Every structure is written in structure tokens, then in C-alpha cells.
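Box 3.1 A note on notation
Throughout this textbook, protein chains are presented in two layers. The first layer is the amino acid sequence; the second is a C-alpha cell string describing backbone geometry. Keep the layers aligned when reading.
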Amino acid sequence: MALEKLFKSLYTEVIRKLSGKPNRRLTGFIIMIINKPLPFIFYTLNLSHRLDHTPKGAIPLLIDIKSRLDEPEIAELLEYSIFPDPVRLEQTLNDYKRSEELELYGYETDGKLIGLVGFRIGPGCVMELRHIAVQPDYRGQGYGRGQILELIHLKNPAEIVAETDEDAVDFYRNIGFEIVSLGEKYPGAERFRCTYEVEPEEEREG
């Protein structure tokens, strides 16, 4: 209970900086991370510090960018999250254009797209992360985990799953995902399944 109050206090302060007043929905959703506190408390503190030193128009916002798939900066970001192959990149862009179930959101600050996350919501409200990327100059500042936090708030999934490689698995591990090795699905390339169970909404509100 003491930890819950601490998180509420921290996140309420962040929301005041964003909007000038507390927001019950945003303040309340922090309760889902009580069981995996350290990565998120550091993210919240880091965000609070950045907000103190950032003009309001430059605060990152997660927005739907699926209608902007022809913009070069979106292709550039997607390329960071897949094997650098022009054919595969074009196929990925076409998949987002053609599929109604695939969603693509971007992290935008001061008119600049600094990150994106692509996903689908499957049966049982399971969110499958397909792609996540942050511009190199903005990495290490919490924007990757920030995108996931905001997605949880926007989409309220029951669970988040992702498959990744050895280079990216520590990102998921460090923000509380459970990691299971899938072995070498391809020669010389170990793959991992990453899972995060989100606390049910009724428990968060109770």
C-alpha cells in the first residue's frame, strides 16, 4: 500500500506538469506496475525530470501514424527494428497498409518523430508487439519503455508479448517482461519470447 501511494504521488506530479491538473485515469494506471516497480519508478522519475526542463510543446506524445506510412522518417524508424533489407522493409510497410488489425503509433516531440511502435491486438486482449524503435540520438532516455507505458494506458491489454533477438532482449527484461528462450529458430540466431502480464483493470481500480 505504501508503494502504491508513492507511485500515485509520483505519477500525479508528472500529470500536473503535463496538463496543470491531476488526471484520474493516468494516475490510476500506474498501479498495474506494483509487482515490477524498479524499471517504472526510474522511468517516472526520469520523465518528471525531463518535463521540468522541456517546453510543453516538446513533450513526447504517442499518436496514430498509420496514415503517414509514405513518409521517409517512418520507413527509417521501421528499418531500425527489422533486418536492414530493402525488400523486407517494403513488405513490412505494405503489411501495415493492407492489414486493418495492424496498428502503428509514433512518439512525436516538437513535430519530430523520435520513435514508433507497431502491434496488433489478438484474442483475449493480447497485444503482440511487432516493431518498436527509437531514433539513435534519443535512445537511453526512457522513450522505448515510455511508448509501452502509454500503449498500456491507450489500449488496456491483458498481456503484451513480443519475440526478439539477443541484441534487444535486455530491453524487455529491464522493464519487467518475463523472458523465455525459443532456441535457435534460425542458424546462429537465438530468439526469445517476452511476456508482460498487465494487472486487470478492475484490480487496478479496486
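The helical segments are 2-19, 24-28, 37-52, 72-80, 86-98, 143-155, 169-174, 201-205. Strands lie at 61-64, 102-109, 112-122, 126-134, 159-165, 178-186, 189-197.
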